Amino acid sequence: MSVSESNGRKLLNAIISSVSGRYVVYAVQLLSLMIMARIFTPEQLGFFAILQVFSIFFMLFSEMGFAPALINKEKLPKNHRDGIYSFTWVMGAVVTLLFALSGPLIAWFYSEPVYQLLILPVAISILFNTACIVPTAALQKDRRFLILARADSISELVSLFAVILIALYFDPLWALSLKALIVSVFRFYQYWLSSSNTAFGKPSFGKELHHFKSLLSFSSYQFGFNILNYFSRNLDTILVGKYMGTASLGVYDQAYKLMRYPLLLLTFAMTPAIQPVLTTLKDNKKEFGRLHNKFALYMAYIGSLIGVLVFFLAEFIVSLMLGKQWSAVVPVIEVLSITIPIQTLLSSSGGFYQAAGRADLLFKCGVFSSITNVSAIAFGIYSESLETLCWMLVASFSINFVQCYWLLSRHLLDGGRSKLVLNLMPIVITVLALSLVKVYVY
């Protein structure tokens, strides 16, 4: 077997392991979505979406891009590992407190005093999610994707059962806010126990917290990208809830979740496998580029097919997954589905930048995409139309796609740029065709 075939086989095996594990998780999450859509109203889910989007923002500050930086390390001495692990607990506690204290500000912004109390269990979940950083990195580096999937599935099922039970006896909003805490606690405990069988080993508390500084040269750019990516991807949720109401947010959030499930099944399931395998090829641009172009071709065809199916089956999908009471989601998801072919590759591009050790280029992509996405969202919110907002996102994702792959081909791929353009043509054709059908036929 040649070196090229060996590298391709390693990547394929890692992707298969990652995908098979994540598919189980997504199946459980989809079941959870279907059940919760029939228990809670769009307004109640809109309330929870607001809490969720702010918790993600605070999580970024506690994570600081450490996980990808840890995966890129060839060795991690015990004292370094334990010092970094202790630091994640400290950071998690600080950010948890800050998020809890932001409750009155969020309540004021949305004119809903109930957020001051609902935010507390969601805030505590940040502590346990942050404590997962080192165990998660250890499991991902060793490609223990099935173990990660098992832990995520169990956590989701336990939280779903708890939410149903709590909703029978207490306010449904409390049930939703407690779900995040239950998931984080069960996930952390399982990750931490399972990490004992990895090369890094199971972390414990250590005194040498200063070792986190060894991660900053990589993680600082990753952290910057995460912050920019957060605002470019979540500002719509924040502003829809503020200016269009929680009911509209509930519709928009459910449409976006349904659109994202194909992406979860495709790129998000594969991305964890990219960095651990291709990190070893970051100095071999020719082989790195060959594997990337092969990956891009497959994903272009698959993403285009999924985009077409979601577009034409939108009404059936919404009825099956959410129920007929969510019919307002249909026109929204039809437009969002046009972005699926684009996001199929755009969402996986970060794994290649990380594998090449070029978080600085990933940060540049984040700066550019944040400008285009924020501009698109601002115009969409001003129009007071969810469909217009979605069309603006189609435009911004298209622009970001061109910029991202121009930067990738220029700096990380050795030759084969013309072949990359040909491999991406199915995406261009599908996006243009679906846009014309939506405008002139539907």
| Biggest β-sheet strands, sense, barrel | none
The total domain count is: 1
Instruction: Give the proportion of residues in helices.
Output: over 70%
Structural class: mainly alpha
The general outline is: globular
Topology pattern, helix = H, strand = E: HHHHHHHHHHHHHHHHHHH
Q: What is the number of helices?
A: 19
The mean pLDDT is 82
Q: What gap, in angstroms, lies between the N and C termini?
A: 52 Å
Main location: membrane
InterPro entries: Poly_Biosynth_Transport
Keywords: Cell membrane, Membrane, Transmembrane, Transmembrane helix
Protein name: Polysaccharide biosynthesis protein C-terminal domain-containing protein
What is the element layout, followed by pairings?
Layout: H1 3-39, H2 42-63, H3 66-71, H4 78-101, H5 103-110, H6 115-131, H7 133-141, H8 145-169, H9 172-194, H10 216-243, H11 246-278, H12 285-312, H13 314-321, H14 329-336, H15 340-346, H16 349-355, H17 359-383, H18 386-411, H19 417-440
Helix pairs in contact: 1-8, 1-11, 2-4, 2-6, 2-9, 2-10, 2-11, 4-6, 5-6, 6-9, 8-9, 10-11, 10-17, 11-12, 11-14, 11-15, 11-16, 12-15, 12-19, 14-18, 15-18, 17-18
Entry keywords:
single chain, 442 residues, mainly alpha, globular
Plain-language structure description:
With 442 residues, this protein is mainly alpha-helical. The chain has one domain (3-440). Helix content is 83%, strand content 0%. The protein is globular, with a radius of gyration of 21 Å. The model has no long low-confidence stretch (mean pLDDT 82). It is a multi-pass membrane protein. One of its GO terms (cellular component) is plasma membrane. Its main location: membrane. This is Polysaccharide biosynthesis protein C-terminal domain-containing protein.
